[in-house]
C-alpha cells in the first residue's frame, strides 16, 4: 500500500532498498523511497559509520527517491548499508546488502566469492529480504524466500498459523533449503489447507526477529470436491450414514462442527442439499482452535431447512458426515415478513413487515445490536405495518436486520449495500494473544488503491504487519497479535469505509508450582540461613524466587530479595528495620503467574545495624535565623551532637562559647535525629557540626550570612497616571539605609539623564521624571537585593478635539459626483481613523484619505449608491459624523405611455415591448401582481433600451394583466386570450333513461372539440364526483356514470359545454321486497334462547319487527340481527312474559310468529350433592344454605319431620334464589336431620342436612419443657405439645406473661407450641412456664456470660502530621463501658484532649486529633479475653492544596483571577499558562500572602484559552482558562419612529459583535425582505428600512438575536392631507366599449380606492387600475348595461365621484332552436336559445300568447342561455312556439306523436 505523509508524520519507507550484487570495478546503486512530514533528513551508514559524499560515494535525492552511488565498487565496499531517515516526528531505517564479485578475467590465483552474504560485526538478526505474499493456483509449487543478516549466524525456523511445519505436514510436502539467494521454503503441489500466514523466525544470542507472508490459494476448477449426492463412498467402502436431526427455533443460530484428521491434511467442504456452500452474511465457515471445521447458520429461517454435509478428502480417500436441519416455527408469526433489500451507498434502504394485529410492540436489531430511533435509523408504524428506514447507507450498514415481537419472535432480512466495497469487514474479530489476525475485504474495481488505519491512525511500518492486494481482494495480516494491537481497523476506498473491532483475548496461564524442601538455619552472627529446592515439575518458562520476611507479631510481609538460582541464601540483620524475631516465606514467580507461598519453619532473632539513610547537609542561614541540622538512620539508636568538638545538650554547649539563653534543641523521633541552633550569629559562621553513634560519624558546616535588604514600601504594584508634561516621582523605602538599588524600565537599566533623576534620602530611594512625556510611560522596577518593587507609569497626551464640524453633517449626491468630507482637529499630527458603517475604511481608487496640518479629508472621487452610509471621523475620544446618501437618476419608461390592450387567439405569438430611459436599468415583469418566471412558454428578452416579454404560443391561462416595472415607473399590458366556442354534437334532444335500483346508468355527450371543459348539473346544481357518481372523459366524448344507481339519484341531468347544453331525464325505481322463508308458530320452554329468522330479497332490504302490534327496540334482552339476506330477532333468556305474536315487516310483505313459553319446575342448584353429616360443638354458630333454580319459589324447613319455627336463636332467611337456616348458638337439642322442601306439592324436591352436636375434649400436656443453658447472645427455644391441637396455651417468663416482640417469638404448628428468645442476655435467666387450661409445665433458663473476642483487629496505620486518624476494632459482642482498654507502648494513653475512645455497638474506636510525630508507636487494645496491637507511623507534614484552582470562563477583553490556598505559608512557586512561565506585567499580576497565592490575567483574548498551572518543588495544580466570545447582546436598541405616508422609515440597532443572525418581527410576525422592505447589516449595526410607508405599516417592530432580550419600537404612520386637484368626469358609452376615469390628487404615492355603484373595484378581468405619481386612473373594458351607475374614487380623505352611463345594445338571438321538433306523448320537450348578452329578458309565446310559468311550462336561464321546458307533452300542445328577445325572435313548430 502506498501512502503520503501528512503534517507531523514520522518518516516511513514506501519502498525499501533491495540487495545489490555487482562485479568488481563497476558502479553500484542502492535506492529507496520514503516520505514524512516535515521532509526527513536521510543518512547512509556502513559498519556503524556515517558515509560522507566523496569522489567515489555520491548521495542523491530527487523528491521521495533517495539513492547511494558507489563508483567502481571493490571488495572493501561489500557489506550491509543502512539508510536512516529522521525528522522532528520520529526516525526510520532500512538495510540492504552490497555483494561485490570478482570479474571473470580476474587472476586465477584468486578464489571466487562463495557462500553467504557478508555480514557486519556482531549484532541481532535483521531481515535483508523478507518472504513475499502470494496468490497461487491449487497444485502449483510455492517458494518463499528470505535473506537475514546478523552475527553469530541466526537460527531459522518456519511456522504456519502459529504451528511448526514439522507438526502439521509430512516431510515430502515441503523442503527447507539455504543457498545464495537466502533461505527458501518450497511447498510442492499446494493444497487448499496450505493457505495461511507463514512466519520465518530468526534468532541468535543478541535477539530475535520475524518476517511473515500471506499465502492465498485459488481452488482448481478441474478437481472440486464432489457433491455428497453423487453416491461416493469413503476409503473404507461405506456409504453415507443416516443423517442426524437437529432442531432449532426460527431466528436462532445453528452451529455444526466437523472434526477431520488424516495425512496429508484433508481438504474440507460443506454442502447444503447437494450444493457447495461459501461464506455469506448468514453462513459462517471457519476453523476453531481445536482444528474443527465449523459451519454456523445465523438467524435460521424455514428456507434454511435441509441436509448439511461435511465432505473431506485427501490422496488416501474421502469421508462424509451429514445432519438434517429442521427449523421450528413460532406459534405467533409475522403477517408479512421482511424481505431482502439492496441499496446504493449514500442512499436509503426501507425494511417493512406486518405484525398480526395493532398494538404489538416491536424492536429493530442489526444482528445483535439493538437499534434506536436517530437521524440514521428512522422507525415508523402505520397500523400493523412496521417500517425501518436506513439513511445515508455505508458499507458497514451491509448486514442482517431483524424485527422482533414479544416472545423473541423474529423476522430476518439482509440489506446489501452496493458501493466500491463489495465485501465488508466483520464487525468484530476475537483473536487469542500470540495468534495471527487476518482481515480481508473485496472491492468492486480491480487493483483499487485502498487504505488501512487503526483507531484513525496510520499503521506503523513493521515486519509484523502485512498488507497485500490481489485483483479485487485487499488483505491485512497482523502476526502474533498483542494486547496493544486491539482497536478498530478501518479500510478506506475513496469515500467508502468499512471497520472491524479487533479484540485480543489473553491466553489462560498456569502458574508455576511452589519450591520444595525449605529449611531455616542459623548462619553467622546476626543472620538467617535459608535453603530450598526447585519446584517439581520445573516450570517451562523462566522463573525467579521471591523471598519475604515478617516480624513475629506483625501482620505485614516485606520482600527481602529475588534470585533465579535455588540453593541457600543468607539474610543478615543489617536489612531489618527493628530488632526482633523474624520468619520467612518463599514463592516462585514467572510470566505465567506466582506460586503459593511456602513458610520456612521457625524464626530467627535479628538486630539491625544503623546506616545513614538521609545524610547530614551543610546549612546556610541569615543572621538571627534558626539553623536546623537533621539526618535519618536506618534504625532507631541513640547518638550525640557536637559543635566544634564540644558535646551539645539541650540548653546549649558546655563550653559557654555561645549564649546559653540562645541554646540549642536536640531531638530524636525513631531513626530521625535533629539539632536546632537558635538565633545564629555571624561569628558562628564556619562552625563544624558532628553527629556520632555506633557505626556512624558524619559532619556538616554552618554558614551564617548577613541579612539581605528588603523593600518595605511599596508592597503592592503601584500604578501612576499623569498628563504630559507633569512631574512624576516614584518612591521606594528600604529595610536599611545605605543599601544600593537599581532602577529598570521595561527590563532595561535606567541611566540618569535630563529626563530621569535618581535621589537617595535615608531609607528612601526616588526616581524623578521632571517633565513626563508619553515616551516615558512603561513598567519601572526598583531592585534592592533580591526584592523588587513594580511601578506602572502611563503618560497621556492632552485629549485631541474636533473643532469642526460640531454637529452631524448630511451629504446628498447623485451617482458619479465627487463627495468630500472635511474635519478640522485641535492639533496637528494626531492619528485619525475614518469609519464607514462601523468598519474602518481602507484607502483605494474609489476612496482617498488626505491630511494637511489640522485638516483631514475623505474624498469619494466618483460616488456610487453603494458608497452611501454613515461616515465617522474619530480622533482620540472625539468624533464627527457624516451621513452620505448617493442616489441613482430615476429610470422612466419611454414607451408605452398608456396602458396597452392585446387580444389573441390560443397558440398565437404575443410580444410585449417596453422601452426605458437608461440602458442597463433593472426591469421586472409581473403578471397579475406576481413576478413572472422564465420557461419554454414565457421568454424575457433585453436589448439596449428595449425589454420584451414573449409568449411563443399563448394559452388561455396566459391571459391577464402584465406589468413592466422599473425602480421608478411601470407600464401595463392587458392580454386577452380567446378560444373558439364549443358545441354539443350529440344528443341534440332531451334523453330519458329509466332503470332499476343498483343498475349502472351511463349518460353520454359528444363535443365539437376535444379538451373543452364540461360541467354536469343535476336538478340545476353542479354535480361532484364520488364513488356513486363517476365523470369520464375521452377526447370529445364525456360520460356521467352511476355505477349502482339508487332512487334518489333520479332527476334531470344537464351536460353544459361552453354555451351549449344537453338534457337527460333519469328515473330510478326500487325492486319489490319479498320474504322468502317465514316460520310458523313456535313453542319454547322458559328460560331458554329464542331466535326468530326470516330471509328477504333483495339482500339490503330493511325490515321492522313488531310484538303484539308494537315496534320493538334492540336491548340486552332482545337483539336484532342482519347478515346477508337473513334477518333475526333473538331473546337470549326468554321468559314467560316474552310470549306473544311477533311480526317481521318489509316495505311490501310481512310474516308473523306465535311464540309460547312454558315455565320449568323448580330444582336445587347448590349444593350439587347431598350434604354430609356436620359435627358442631355447643355454642357454635351454624348456617345451612341451598340455592334454587327460580328465585320466587317457596321452600319449607323441617327438623326430624317437624316444621322449623323461627325464634330469637333460629332465623330463616331468603336472598334471591338462595335459602338459609341460621342458628346463633347451637344447643344439643338442635341435633337431627334438617330438610328443605321446594314447594308444597307431594313430589317436590327436598334436601336434607344431618347435624351432630358434640362436647369438646379435655386439654392435656403431651410433652414437658426442657431446661436450657446457653451462652450470652445466643437464641433460646422452648417447645411443648398439647392435646387437642386447638387448645389455647400461654407462656410466662419469671411469672410474667410473655408478649411477642422483636426479641420474643411465639409460634404454633398443630399441637406443637414454640417460644424463642433472640440474643439472650444475663437478665433473661429464670423460669419459663407454658400454661393451658387445667395443666402447666416449667423449665429453667440459664444464660452464661460470653467471651469478648476481637473479630476485626487493629491494622498498622501511616498518616501525616497534623491529620486526624481513627483506629478501630470490632468485638464479638456488645459490651458495657470500659470492657476494652487502649494502650500506647504498653502504657495507658496519656491524659490529653486529643485522645478519645468511642464505642458504637460492637465497634470500639480510638480517635487521635491533630497527630504529631511523637504520637507514633505501638498501640494496643485489650479485653478480658483477647488482645490486639498495631503500629502507628507519623510522617512530617507534606505540602498540600487546601483550596484548589478552579476553572475560569471569561469573555474576551475581561480578566480572570486564579486563587490557590496551600497548607504551608511562604511557599515559592511559578505560574504558567500553556506551559509558558508567566512574569508580572501590565496584564499579569502575581501575588502571595500567607497560605494564599493569586494570579490575575487581564485583557484576555480568544487565543489565551488554555491551562493555567501553579508549580512548586513538590506539587503542581492546574485549572482551565476558557475565553469565550463576547455574549451576543443588543447594545443599542430601537427608537420609536413617526413618518408620513409614502415616506421611508429606518429602524437601527447595534449588536455586541458583528457576526450574528438577527430576526425582525412586526406585531409578532417575522419579516422577510421585499421590494418595499430592506434589511441590512453594517458591521455590528442592523438596519430595517421601509419604503413608501402606508398606514398598514404602523405597529410594533422588534428585533431579536440569539438568547438576548429583544428590543422593540413603535412606528406611527401619519396620513397625508390629500385633496382632489382634478375631479372625475362623467362618461357615456355604448355596451361593449371601454371607459376611462382619471383623478389627480395633491399628494403622490397615496393609494386610492375605486367603487362602482357602491361596490369596490379590484384589478383584474374587465377592470384596470393604475397610479402614476398623483394621477389615478380607472379603465373599464367591455362595458355592460348593468355597469351604469356612480363611479367613486377616494384617496385618503379626498373623494370624487361621477356617473357612468352605458347604452345597451339591442338584444339578439345568437343560437336559435330547431324550426321543427317532434316529441312523444307524455314526455318532456325542451326549447333552448342563446342571446347576445347575459341578463337579457326573453318571452315565450304560443300562438302569439305569452306562456305562464307553472307545472306545465318551466322557464330556465343560465347566463346567455334560456330554456323552455314543457312537461307531459300532449297532442293539444302542438303548435308554433316563439321566443322573443328584444326585437329578435325565433320560432319552433312542435309536433306530438303517440308511443
UniProtKB/TrEMBL annotation:
Residues 11-99, 125-216, 221-321, 330-413, 707-784, 798-887, 889-978, 980-1069, 1071-1158, 1167-1248, 1257-1433, 1527-1619, 1706-1789 form the Ig-like domain. It comes from Vombatus ursinus. SMART domains: IG, IGc2. Transmembrane segments: none annotated. One of its GO terms (cellular component) is perinuclear region of cytoplasm. One of its GO terms (biological process) is Golgi organization. This is Obscurin-like protein 1. It is found in: Cytoplasm, Perinuclear region; Golgi apparatus. Core component of the 3M complex, a complex required to regulate microtubule dynamics and genome integrity. It is unclear how the 3M complex regulates microtubules, it could act by controlling the level of a microtubule stabilizer. Acts as a regulator of the Cul7-RING(FBXW8) ubiquitin-protein ligase, playing a critical role in the ubiquitin ligase pathway that regulates Golgi morphogenesis and dendrite patterning in brain. Required to localize CUL7 to the Golgi apparatus in neurons. Its main location: cytoplasm. The keyword Cytoplasm applies. It holds the Pfam family I-set. Keywords: Cytoplasm, Disulfide bond, Golgi apparatus, Immunoglobulin domain, Phosphoprotein, Repeat. Residues 220-242 are annotated as: Disordered. Component of the 3M complex, composed of core components CUL7, CCDC8 and OBSL1. Interacts with CCDC8. Interacts with CUL7; the interaction is direct. Interacts with FBXW8. Interacts (via N-terminal Ig-like domain) with TTN/titin (via C-terminal Ig-like domain); the interaction is direct. Residues 511-609 form the Fibronectin type-III domain.
Amino acid at each position: 500500500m502506498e501512502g503520503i505523509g501528512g503534517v507531523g508524520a514520522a518518516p516511513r519507507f514506501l519502498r525499501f532498498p533491495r540487495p545489490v550484487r555487482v562485479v568488481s570495478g563497476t558502479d553500484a546503486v542502492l535506492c529507496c523511497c520514503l516520505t514524512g512530514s516535515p521532509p526527513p533528513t536521510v543518512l547512509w551508514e556502513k559498519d556503524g559509520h556515517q558515509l560522507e559524499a566523496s569522489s567515489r560515494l555520491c548521495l542523491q535525492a530527487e523528491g521521495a527517491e533517495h539513492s547511494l552511488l558507489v563508483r567502481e565498487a571493490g571488495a572493501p565496499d561489500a557489506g550491509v548499508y543502512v539508510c536512516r531517515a529522521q525528522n522532528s516526528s520520529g526516525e526510520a531505517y532500512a538495510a540492504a546488502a552490497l555483494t561485490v564479485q570478482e570479474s571473470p578475467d580476474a587472476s586465477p590465483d584468486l578464489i571466487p566469492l562463495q557462500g553467504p552474504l557478508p555480514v557486519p560485526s556482531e549484532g541481532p538478526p535483521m531481515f535483508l529480504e523478507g518472504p513475499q505474499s502470494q496468490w497461487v493456483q491449487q497444485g502449483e509449487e510455492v517458494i518463499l524466500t528470505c535473506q537475514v543478516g546478523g552475527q553469530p549466524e541466526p537460527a531459522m525456523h518456519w511456522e504456519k498459523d502459529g504451528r511448526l511445519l514439522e507438526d502439521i505436514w509430512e516431510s515430502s510436502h515441503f523442503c527447507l533449503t539455504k543457498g545464495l539467494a537466502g533461505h527458501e521454503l518450497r511447498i510442492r503441489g499446494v493444497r487448499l489447507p496450505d493457505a495461511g500466514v507463514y512466519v520465518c523466525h530468526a534468532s541468535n544470542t543478541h535477539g530475535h526477529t520475524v518476517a511473515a507472508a500471506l499465502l492465498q490459494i485459488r481452488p482448481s476448477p478441474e478437481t472440486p470436491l464432489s457433491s455428497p449426492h453423487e453416491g461416493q463412498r469413503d476409503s473404507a467402502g461405506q456409504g453415507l450414514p443416516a443423517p442426524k436431526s437437529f432442531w432449532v427455533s426460527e431466528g436462532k443460530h445453528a452451529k455444526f462442527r466437523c472434526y477431520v484428521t488424516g495425512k496429508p491434511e484433508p481438504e474440507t467442504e460443506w454442502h447444503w442439499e447437494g450444493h457447495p456452500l461459501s461464506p455469506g452474511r448468514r453462513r459462517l465457515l471457519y476453523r476453531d482452535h481445536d482444528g474443527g471445521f465449523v459451519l454456523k447458520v445465523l438467524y435460521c429461517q424455514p428456507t434454511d431447512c435441509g441436509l448439511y454435509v461435511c465432505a473431506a478428502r485427501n490422496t488416501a480417500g474421502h469421508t462424509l458426515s451429514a445432519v438434517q436441519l429442521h427449523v421450528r416455527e413460532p406459534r405467533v408469526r409475522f403477517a408479512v415478513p421482511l424481505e431482502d433489500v439492496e441499496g446504493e451507498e449514500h442512499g436509503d434502504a426501507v425494511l417493512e413487515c406486518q405484525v398480526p394485529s395493532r398494538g404489538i410492540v416491536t424492536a429493530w436489531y442489526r444482528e445483535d445490536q439493538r437499534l434506536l430511533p436517530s437521524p440514521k435509523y428512522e422507525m415508523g408504524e402505520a397500523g400493523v405495518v412496521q417500517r425501518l428506514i436506513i439513511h445515508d447507507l455505508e458499507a458497514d450498514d451491509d448486514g442482517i436486520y431483524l424485527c422482533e415481537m414479544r416472545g423473541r419472535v423474529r423476522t430476518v432480512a439482509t440489506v446489501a449495500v452496493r458501493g466500491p466495497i463489495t465485501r465488508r469487514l466483520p464487525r468484530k474479530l476475537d483473536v487469542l494473544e500470540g495468534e495471527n489476525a487476518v482481515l480481508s475485504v473485496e472491492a468492486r474495481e480491480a487493483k483499487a488503491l485502498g487504505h488501512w488505519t487503526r483507531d484513525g491512525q496510520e499503521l506503523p511500518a513493521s515486519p509484523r504487519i502485512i498488507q497485500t492486494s490481489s485483483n479485487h481482494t485487499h488483505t491485512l495480516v497482523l502476526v502474533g497479535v498483542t494486547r496493544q494491537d486491539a482497536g478498530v481497523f478501518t479500510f478506506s476506498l475513496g469515500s467508502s469505509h468499512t471497520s472491524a473491532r479487533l479484540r485480543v483475548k489473553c491466553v489462560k496461564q498456569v502458574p508455576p508450582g511452589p519450591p520444595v524442601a525449605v529449611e531455616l538455619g542459623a548462619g553467622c552472627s546476626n543472620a538467617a540461613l535459608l535453603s530450598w529446592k526447585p519446584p517439581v515439575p520445573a516450570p517451562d518458562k523462566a522463573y525467579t524466587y521471591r523471598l519475604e520476611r515478617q516480624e513475629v507479631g506483625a501482620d505485614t510481609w516485606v520482600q527481602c530479595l529475588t534470585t533465579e538460582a535455588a540453593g541457600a541464601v543468607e539474610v543478615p540483620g543489617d536489612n531489618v528495620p527493628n530488632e526482633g524475631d523474624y520468619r520467612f516465606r518463599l514463592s516462585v514467580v514467572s510470566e505465567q503467574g506466582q506460586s503459593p507461598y511456602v513458610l520456612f519453619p521457625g524464626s530467627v532473632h535479628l538486630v539491625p545495624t544503623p546506616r545513614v539513610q538521609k545524610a547530614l547537609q551543610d546549612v546556610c542561614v541569615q543572621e538571627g535565623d534558626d539553623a536546623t541540622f537533621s539526618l535519618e538512620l536506618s534504625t532507631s539508636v541513640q547518638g550525640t551532637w557536637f559543635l566544634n568538638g564540644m558535646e551539645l545538650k539541650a540548653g546549649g554547649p558546655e563550653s559557654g562559647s555561645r549564649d546559653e539563653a540562645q541554646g540549642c534543641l536536640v531531638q530524636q523521633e525513631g531513626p530521625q535525629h535533629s539539632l536546632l541552633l537558635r538565633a545564629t550569629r555571624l561569628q558562628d559562621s564556619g562552625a563544624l557540626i558532628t553527629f556520632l553513634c555506633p557505626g556512624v560519624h558524619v559532619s556538616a558546616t554552618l554558614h551564617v550570612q548577613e541579612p539581605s535588604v528588603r523593600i518595605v514600601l511599596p508592597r503592592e504594584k503601584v500604578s501612576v497616571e499623569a498628563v504630559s508634561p507633569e512631574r512624576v516621582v516614584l518612591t521606594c523605602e528600604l529595610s536599611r539605609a545605605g543599601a544600593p538599588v537599581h532602577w529598570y524600565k521595561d527590563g532595561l537599566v535606567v541611566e540618569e539623564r535630563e529626563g530621569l533623576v535618581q535621589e537617595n534620602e535615608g531609607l528612601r530611594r526616588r526616581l524623578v521624571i521632571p517633565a513626563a512625556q508619553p515616551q516615558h510611560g512603561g513598567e519601572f522596577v526598583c531592585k534592592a537585593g533580591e526584592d523588587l518593587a513594580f511601578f506602572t507609569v502611563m503618560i497621556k497626551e492632552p485629549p485631541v478635539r474636533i473643532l469642526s464640524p460640531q454637529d452631524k453633517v448630511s451629504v446628498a449626491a447623485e451617482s458619479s459626483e465627487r463627495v468630500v468630507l472635511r474635519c478640522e482637529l485641535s492639533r496637528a499630527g494626531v492619528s485619525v481613523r475614518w469609519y464607514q458603517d462601523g468598519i474602518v475604511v481602507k484607502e483605494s481608487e474609489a476612496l482617498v484619505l488626505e491630511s494637511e496640518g489640522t485638516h483631514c479629508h475623505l474624498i469619494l472621487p466618483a460616488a456610487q449608491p453603494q458608497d452611501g452610509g454613515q461616515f465617522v471621523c474619530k480622533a482620540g475620544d472625539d468624533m464627527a459624523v457624516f451621513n452620505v446618501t448617493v442616489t441613482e437618476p430615476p429610470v422612466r419608461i419611454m414607451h408605452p405611455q398608456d396602458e396597452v390592450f392585446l387580444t389573441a387567439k390560443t397558440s398565437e405569438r404575443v410580444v410585449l415591448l417596453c422601452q426605458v430611459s437608461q440602458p442597463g436599468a433593472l426591469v421586472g415583469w409581473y403578471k397579475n401582481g406576481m413576478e413572472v418566471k422564465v420557461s419554454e412558454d414565457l421568454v424575457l428578452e433585453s436589448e439596449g433600451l428595449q425589454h420584451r416579454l414573449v409568449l411563443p404560443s399563448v394559452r388561455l391561462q396566459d391571459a391577464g394583466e402584465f406589468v413592466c416595472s422599473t425602480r421608478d415607473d411601470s407600464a401595463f399590458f392587458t392580454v386577452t386570450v380567446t378560444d373558439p366556442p364549443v358545441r354539443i354534437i350529440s344528443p341534440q334532444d332531451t334523453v330519458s333513461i329509466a332503470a332499476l335500483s343498483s343498475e349502472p346508468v351511463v349518460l353520454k355527450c359528444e363535443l365539437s372539440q376535444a379538451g373543452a371543459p364540461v360541467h354536469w348539473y343535476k336538478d340545476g346544481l353542479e354535480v361532484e364526483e364520488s364513488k356513486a357518481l363517476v365523470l369520464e372523459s375521452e377526447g370529445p366524448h364525456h360520460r356521467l356514470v352511476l355505477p349502482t344507481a339508487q332512487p334518489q339519484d333520479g332527476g334531470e341531468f344537464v351536460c353544459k359545454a361552453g354555451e351549449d347544453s344537453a338534457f337527460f331525464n333519469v328515473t330510478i325505481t326500487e325492486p319489490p321486497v319479498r320474504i322468502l322463508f317465514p316460520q310458523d308458530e313456535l313453542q319454547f320452554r322458559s328460560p331458554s334462547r329464542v331466535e326468530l329468522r326470516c330471509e328477504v330479497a333483495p339482500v339490503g332490504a330493511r325490515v321492522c319487527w313488531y310484538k303484539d302490534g308494537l315496534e320493538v327496540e334492540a336491548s340486552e334482552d332482545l337483539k336484532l340481527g342482519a347478515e346477508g339476506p337473513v334477518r333475526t330477532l333473538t331473546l337470549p333468556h326468554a321468559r314467560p312474559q316474552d310470549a306473544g305474536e311477533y311480526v317481521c315487516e318489509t316495505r311490501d310483505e310481512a310474516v308473523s310468529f306465535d311464540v309460547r313459553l312454558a315455565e320449568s319446575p323448580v330444582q336445587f342448584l347448590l349444593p350439587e350433592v347431598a350434604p354430609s353429616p356436620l359435627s358442631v360443638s355447643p355454642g357454635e354458630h351454624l348456617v345451612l344454605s341451598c340455592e334454587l333454580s327460580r328465585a320466587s319459589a317457596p321452600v319449607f324447613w323441617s327438623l326430624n319431620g317437624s316444621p322449623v319455627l323461627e325464634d330469637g336463636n333460629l332465623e330463616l332467611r331468603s336472598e334471591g334464589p338462595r335459602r338459609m337456616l341460621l342458628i346463633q348458638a347451637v344447643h344439643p337439642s338442635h341435633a337431627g336431620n334438617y330438610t328443605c322442601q321446594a314447594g308444597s306439592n307431594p313430589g317436590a324436591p327436598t334436601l336434607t342436612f344431618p347435624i351432630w352436636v358434640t362436647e369438646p375434649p379435655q386439654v392435656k400436656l403431651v410433652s414437658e419443657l426442657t431446661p436450657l443453658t446457653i451462652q450470652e447472645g445466643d437464641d433460646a427455644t422452648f417447645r411443648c405439645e398439647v392435646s387437642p391441637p386447638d387448645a389455647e396455651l400461654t407462656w410466662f417468663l419469671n411469672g410474667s406473661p410473655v408478649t411477642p416482640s422483636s426479641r420474643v417469638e411465639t409460634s404454633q404448628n398443630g399441637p406443637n407450641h414454640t417460644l424463642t428468645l433472640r440474643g439472650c442476655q444475663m437478665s433473661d435467666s429464670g423460669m419459663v412456664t407454658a400454661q393451658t387450661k387445667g395443666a402447666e409445665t416449667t423449665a429453667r433458663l440459664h444464660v452464661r456470660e460470653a467471651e469478648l473476642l476481637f473479630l476485626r483487629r487493629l491494622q498498622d496505620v501511616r498518616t501525616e502530621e497534623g491529620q486526624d486518624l481513627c483506629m478501630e476494632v470490632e468485638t464479638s459482642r456488645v459490651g458495657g463501658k470500659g470492657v476494652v482498654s487502649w494502650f500506647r507502648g504498653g502504657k495507658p494513653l496519656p491524659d490529653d484532649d486529643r485522645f478519645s475512645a468511642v464505642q458504637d455497638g460492637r465497634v470500639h474506636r480510638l480517635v487521635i486529633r491533630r497527630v504529631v510525630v511523637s504520637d507514633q508507636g505501638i498501640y494496643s487494645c485489650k479485653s478480658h479475653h483477647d488482645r490486639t496491637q498495631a503500629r502507628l507511623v507519623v510522617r512530617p507534614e507534606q505540602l498540600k492544596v487546601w483550596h484548589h484552582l478552579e476553572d475560569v470562563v471569561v469573555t474576551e477583553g475581561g480578566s480572570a483571577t486564579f486563587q490557590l490556598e496551600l497548607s504551608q505559608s511562604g511557599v515559592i512557586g511559578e505560574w504558567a499558562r500553556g506551559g509558558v512561565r508567566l512574569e508580572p506585567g501590565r496584564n499579569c499580576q502575581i501575588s502571595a500572602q500567607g497560605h494564599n497565592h493569586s494570579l490575575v490575567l487581564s485583557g484576555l483574548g480568544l487565543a489565551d484559552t488554555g491551562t493555567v498551572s501553579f508549580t512548586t518543588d513538590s506539587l503542581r495544580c492546574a485549572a482551565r482558562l476558557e475565553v469565550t466570545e463576547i455574549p451576543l447582546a443588543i447594545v443599542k436598541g430601537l427608537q420609536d419612529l413617526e413618518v408620513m405616508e409614502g415616506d421611508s422609515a429606518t429602524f437601527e440597532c447595534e449588536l455586541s459583535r458583528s457576526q450574528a443572525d438577527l430576526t425582525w418581527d412586526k406585531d409578532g410576525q417575522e419579516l422577510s425582505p421585499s421590494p418595499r422592505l430592506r434589511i441590512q447589516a453594517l458591521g455590528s449595526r442592523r438596519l430595517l428600512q421601509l419604503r413608501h410607508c402606508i398606514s398598514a405599516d404602523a405597529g410594533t417592530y422588534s428585533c431579536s438575536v440569539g438568547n438576548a432580550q429583544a428590543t422593540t419600537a413603535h412606528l406611527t404612520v401619519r396620513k397625508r392631507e390629500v385633496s382632489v386637484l382634478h375631479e372625475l368626469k362623467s362618461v357615456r358609452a355604448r355596451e361593449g366599449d371601454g371607459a376611462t376615469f382619471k383623478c389627480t390628487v395633491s399628494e403622490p404615492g397615496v393609494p386610492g380606492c375605486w367603487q362602482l355603484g357602491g361596490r369596490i373595484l379590484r384589478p383584474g378581468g374587465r377592470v384596470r387600475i393604475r397610479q402614476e405619481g398623483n394621477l389615478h386612473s380607472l379603465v373599464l373594458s367591455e362595458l355592460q348595461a348593468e355597469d351604469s351607475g356612480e363611479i367613486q374614487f377616494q384617496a385618503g380623505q379626498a373623494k370624487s365621484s361621477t356617473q357612468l352611463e352605458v347604452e345597451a345594445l339591442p338584444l339578439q338571438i345568437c343560437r336559435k332552436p330547431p324550426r321543427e321538433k317532434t316529441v312523444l306523448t307524455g314526455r318532456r320537450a325542451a326549447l333552448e336559445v342563446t342571446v347576445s348578452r347575459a341578463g337579457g329578458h326573453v318571452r315565450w309565446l304560443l300562438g302569439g300568447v305569452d306562456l305562464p310559468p307553472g307545472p306545465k311550462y318551466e322557464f330556465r336561464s343560465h347566463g346567455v342561455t334560456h330554456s323552455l321546458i314543457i312537461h307531459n307533452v300532449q297532442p293539444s300542445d302542438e303548435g308554433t312556439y316563439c321566443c322573443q328577445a328584444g326585437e329578435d325572435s325565433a320560432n319552433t313548430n312542435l309536433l306530438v306523436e303517440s308511443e
